[in-house]
Amino acid sequence: MAGRALVLGGGGVTGVAWELGILAGLAEAGIDLTAADLIVGTSAGSVVAAQITTGMSLYELYERQLDGFGSEVAARMSFGTILKLGWAVLGSRDPQKGRVRAGAMALAARTVPESERRAIIAGRLPVHEWPDRKVLITAVAADDGEFVVFDQYSGVTLVDAVGASCAVPGVWPPVTINGRRYVDGGMRSPVNIDLGAGYDQVVVLAPISTSLRRETGVARQVAALPKGTRVAVVEPDQAARTAIGRNVLDPAHRAPAARAGRRQADDLVRKVGAVWAS
């Protein structure tokens, strides 16, 4: 399978902003990653995947990240929640069983109402219809830990698919779709690079590159791609990490993260261009 794939990883509201900053900055330098034949979105990356395929310019999307909080609500993953989630995922040698435990934790957690969270997700998306191109959005079924990939043919609305992919266990409510409930696609991998396997050129934007399970981290997934695949992995540089801060769910850091991504793009032109060029 020839072609170019753009893989967008998870990283909270600051991850959305940083990714859009990177994309806008690279586009200014003549590298349009939105022209990919495949776009994969996980968690924050699912928001970006949906946004960049609406026809709205990257400049407009970037500018939206600078306009205050909008409908975003500040949240934080407490230390206790992080410990519970780590215990759930790592408590079994079987990755899927670990995701079942994470799903059970999500189902038991007290969060905002699902309808309230859905309204916030809907507010992030300029268009609520699936684009007529290959976009994959990842999620995990809360009941049995199944890794699920939604697309325009799945019979699931774009808002629900993105909402499911962004449903961080213990922070946001699982999303109900056709009677089944789903949580964050990042519970399987923060990036899910393997969905780009078979494409000749792959660019990965990874606000978070470490995984609770080593086998689903960025390095392992890149190494598992077919031989000959040209890959560029982009992670936040030091300035971007400082702008993002410790809480990726805090919209107060959205504008600084976007600006940091746009500045970082200047240093990525050669690296990304070498992979993206035909």
Short recap of the structure:
It is built from eleven helices and eight strands. The protein is α/β, with parallel strands linked by helices.
The amount of beta strand, in percent, is: 5-15%
List the uncertain runs.
none
Structural class: alpha/beta
Choose one word for the global shape. Answer: globular
Report the major sheet.
8 strands, mixed
Number of helices: 11
What is the element layout, followed by pairings?
Blueprint: E1 4-8, H1 12-28, E2 38-41, H2 44-51, H3 58-64, H4 79-90, H5 95-108, H6 114-124, E3 135-141, E4 147-150, H7 158-165, E5 175-177, E6 180-184, E7 201-205, H8 218-223, E8 230-234, H9 238-244, H10 254-265, H11 269-276
Parallel strand pairs: 1-2, 1-7, 2-3, 7-8
Antiparallel strand pairs: 3-4, 3-6, 5-6
